[in-house]
Design brief:
Number of helices: 13
CATH topology: Alkaline Phosphatase, subunit A
CATH architecture: 3-Layer(aba) Sandwich
Largest sheet: 7 strands, mixed
Distance between the termini: 44 Å
Shape: globular
CATH class: Alpha Beta
Order of helices and strands: EEHEHEEHEHHEHHHHHHEHEEEEEEEHEE
Amino acid sequence: MLKVLFGDKATNCAGMTRRSALQVGGLGFGGLTLPNLLSARAASSPEISRDTSVVWLWLNGGPTHIETFDPKMTAPKEYRSVSGEVKTRLPGVTLGGHFEGMAQQADRMTFVRSFVVPTSSHNRGAFWVNTGYKQGSNRPSLGSITSRVRGANHPVSGMPTYLQMGQIGFNTDAPIIPGPAWLGKAYGPFTPSGPSRENMNLTTEVSRLEDRRSLLKGLDKLQRDVDANGVMDGIDGMNHQAFSLILGKATQAFDLKREDPRTVDKYGGGLGQSLLTARRLCEVGCGFVAVSLQGWDMHGNVAGGMNSRGPQVDRAVSAFVSDIHQRGLDKNILLVISGEFGRTPRINKNAGRDHWGPLSTLALAGGGLNMGQVIGKSSPKAEVPAGGKVGPQQLMATIFHVLGIERETSFDDPAGRPIPMLGTGQPIRGLI
């Protein structure tokens, strides 16, 4: 909700009071106003670098590691990738058959083939990967930690530090999986496609172009009215940033009509436009953007599932990786691709694969890390790691490194006890 009030009482020469000039709705944070959230950044460390960001592509449901990044075509038929494989630019390295675009970007990516999640439960796995700890430990997510360290909003653009597009996890536990825990609601994810959309009237549903055009026309008119009446003169800093978020950088970031049409076409629709939006959000101050793609719980017909999901990921990711390199952002933005676990190595009776925590894969690009390699390896049938085991804590430590978050970072819990955000995990060997 955005209200600009032109009242008759206690007005200045422009017909407006400074106090009533601006009201900004609650942005989905339990009634907290945007100026309140901007004020929360005061708790952050001014030394933390704000020029790096993470875009986390979450494949919700548990992506098959065999049909994605570890095809195992030398294994028995019932184990190997049902979609075949494609050669990459890395000698001897192949990906699943749907990933021809990513294969051409493989020298700019790293694939981890030995990622282990200590559970085969959707929500428990999602909690492990997003927090580094088991579910029930009341731990904040990586995005919320980033928000707490850097501040809930960028100090210049006002953009939320932590933004989420799409659901992570399943069932009733889903809303808490990417949450702030006891850090507080101010550090939870801003979800422009969720309840906050009603308050802010911004949307990441890029297919709804008519709604977007109406919004942008209205905001453009409001901006002109504000400039003409001098509303911005003398309002306090938090309200100034709040107003800028609504009328400035945020509007531009979500408006893909401002993007080169050739770039928009390169990304494609659906997921592609979400990742393009994520890149634009990072450019204006988002520190952690989570993008979720549903449909990876492929208990049956994994071939059909991959026919639907694989090309979307391939086009969007290959465009994203190429794009950040062309823009010189490959040291500033880290792309992480994961889900909550892998899938059973052996095809089941329904031609699908079931839940499998003992092994999955990761794909990463950018972040100033060492790219163009495969880290770790799996057993001959892709059942367990055969070397270079990587767990959620190591992934978490790697992300800390990219974002400039000290490994020793801790915050007091409600009882006043200092709780370290990271345990014993070290960054993934070979990436740093």
